[in-house]
Recover the amino acids of this structure.
């Protein structure tokens, strides 16, 4: 029985703007941030051929694809933050 837990983490960042809804103060106005994102997957089994949990390229590509939908956007107009 394999009880070892493997973790793989990738990091990336993006820049976006937003305004806080129903907030009284400067942050109610449009302003921007640089966001740092960390994505971690974990599992108990490594692939037999490469002995990896998941290829870094697969995880990095997936994260980049998601962050492209947020980068240099107005988050208040971008799902799911538009609600």
């Amino acid at each position: 029985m394999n009880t070892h837990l493997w973790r793989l983490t990738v990091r990336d960042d993006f820049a976006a703007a937003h305004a806080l809804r129903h907030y009284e103060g400067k942050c109610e106005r449009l302003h921007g941030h640089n966001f740092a994102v960390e994505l971690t997957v974990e599992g108990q089994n490594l692939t037999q051929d490469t002995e990896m949990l998941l290829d870094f390229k697969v995880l990095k590509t997936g994260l980049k694809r998601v962050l492209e939908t947020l980068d240099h956007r107005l988050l208040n107009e971008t799902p799911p933050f538009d609600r």
